[in-house]
Amino acid sequence: MNEHKRIERLMLFVELAQQLNFTKAAQTLGISKSYLSEQVKRLEAELKCPLLVRTTRSVRLTQEGERVLAQGLTIRSQVLDLERSVSDEHEKVSGLLRLTATKMFAEVFLFDICQRFKKIYPDICFEINSSYTTFNLNQDGIDIAFRATNTPPENMVATKLISYQHDLVASPAYLEEFGRPSQVSDLHNHQCLATLHQRLWPLLSEDITVSGWVSSNENHLLKQQALAGNGILRIASYYVEKEVMNGELELVLADECIEMNNSVYLFHPQMIYPAQKHKVFIQFVRDYFKDRS
């Protein structure tokens, strides 16, 4: 037997037992009188006892009917409490937000965003998976993703946050010691700090395969080496923006950098009833980058 049908019949009976009038109860419930009567009969059959005494002029409850009404009212109250509890929790900006972002984006932007957001909503906390792993947000329990891409997933709601390019940078000390490249081919004579997956640097006039004393899959470590005067680095412009502005790093072959051909998107699954914490955080992120621009 379907339990949900039994509960439905019980709730129909509770309304009837309170009104003791089939016509009025059916109108309140928005169903036909005959359907209500049939469902009550089925409930009586399931419980194997009469719940009502029906006459041509009145309806009254049997002793068993009184007991079923009392239990039914308790169950209805518990359901209403559950609905209110879930609804209240759904509308609060509190609890856990699970995010994923690349390490560079998390370092430059995401931790700052989360700290600012928490100052406004102290009951929120974050779980940030900072990696280049591509998660399935519908299966992996991630609420919101931040990814560098020009083709965000079509099955996600996507918002473009920033555009950026890849700049070549080096410290003033390195350029003073080893000279400043004036053309792309000069890079063959320099220590180039490349990532493990990209030793081919795409530039405007040509693509060039570079080499250097070290390569790594960790951009933060490569930036530290560039700051220490140990080579030329090709990196996302937003990741070295502060260092370039304060003179710790200088642009190299700036005319060879392909302008603003990359983007970072925020995306998340389509949600019919998004939690308040999701809606408020997403808008906060949009405003953060709007103000920055």
Automatic annotation (TrEMBL):
<comment type="similarity">
    <text>Belongs to the LysR transcriptional regulatory family.</text>
</comment>
<dbReference type="InterPro" id="IPR000847">
    <property type="entry name" value="LysR_HTH_N"/>
</dbReference>
<feature type="domain" description="HTH lysR-type">
    <location>
        <begin position="1"/>
        <end position="62"/>
    </location>
</feature>
<dbReference type="InterPro" id="IPR058163">
    <property type="entry name" value="LysR-type_TF_proteobact-type"/>
</dbReference>
<keyword id="KW-0238">DNA-binding</keyword>
<keyword id="KW-0805">Transcription regulation</keyword>
<keyword id="KW-0804">Transcription</keyword>
<protein>
    <submittedName>
        <fullName>LysR family transcriptional regulator</fullName>
    </submittedName>
</protein>
<dbReference type="Pfam" id="PF03466">
    <property type="entry name" value="LysR_substrate"/>
</dbReference>
<dbReference type="InterPro" id="IPR036390">
    <property type="entry name" value="WH_DNA-bd_sf"/>
</dbReference>
<dbReference type="Pfam" id="PF00126">
    <property type="entry name" value="HTH_1"/>
</dbReference>
<dbReference type="InterPro" id="IPR036388">
    <property type="entry name" value="WH-like_DNA-bd_sf"/>
</dbReference>
<dbReference type="InterPro" id="IPR005119">
    <property type="entry name" value="LysR_subst-bd"/>
</dbReference>
